[in-house]
Amino acid sequence: MADQLIRATAAGGGIRAVGAITTRLTEEARKRHKLSYVATAALGRTMSAGLLLASNMKRAESRVNIRVKGNGPLGGILVDAGLDGTVRGYVDNPEIELPPKPNGKLDVGGAVGSEGYLYAIRDVGYGYPYSSTVELVSGEIGDDVTHYLATSEQTPSALVVGVFVGAAGVSAAGGILLQVMPKAATDETLVQTLESRVAALSGFTPLLQAGKTLPEMFELLLEDMGLEILPEVQMVRFHCGCSPDRFLGALKLLGEAELQDMIEKDDGAEATCHFCNEVYQASSDDLSQLIGALKAQS
Ligand code: ZN
Fold first, then answer.
1. pLDDT beyond 80 at 251
2. Which end of the chain is less packed: N or C, by CB atoms within 10 Å?
3. Measured in angstroms, how far is the CA atom of residue 19 from the centroid of ligand 1?
């Protein structure tokens, strides 16, 4: 199944549901960053959460950044996701591996650490990003993002994210977010109903692994509540906006003296994009051209 995001409503618009399949983009992140199993699960879960959070924003250029900084060996996680369906991200220590938990699941909480913070920044495209911080609950990502939604955005929410990864790569990844809409947030019955679905939602990852589609999963969760699945199927993908031109642009900002220094000491310049692990190189000739361009400007 192609990576995709589908939206739905229930309870006469009082509940909003979003689901995302992120199998391929999680596999792309795994390959790009040479992620261990547990790092694949941690980053994959956070990327799914980012796409789900971004999905309820309004302006086309809206983006969400999620930074998770726990006390575990994985170090930090940074994810940048957009309403346009693009997402990118990385972890500090991609090679960290931990033994699975007694229940056979990957120990994401152990890798991330249960003490630390989740920072979320919502940029609606006006240049005034809204940011907030919450303490981590478990480091398992799903719990932590749910806690963020409940405390910072004061939206009763239930979120589940999951990744299945093995020797052959990522076999399934995705997530589902259920939220009581702000206008209905004071409706106690609705909030309780949502909470009653959280248990059912925990069955999401086995369904995902079994290859169930998002509409099938929505039906299992909300069929008795006036489920309406929106017709649009949005494609989601791993995408980073870096490029050779941007690399050269960034070098140019260093100025003439620094560029001359790079020519003499390093015979060029090289940089790796944190987000996508793409390596960019500039030869001494490239750097000389940049110096020429800077001289022509001054
Ligand atoms: Zn990049």
1. yes
2. C
3. 26
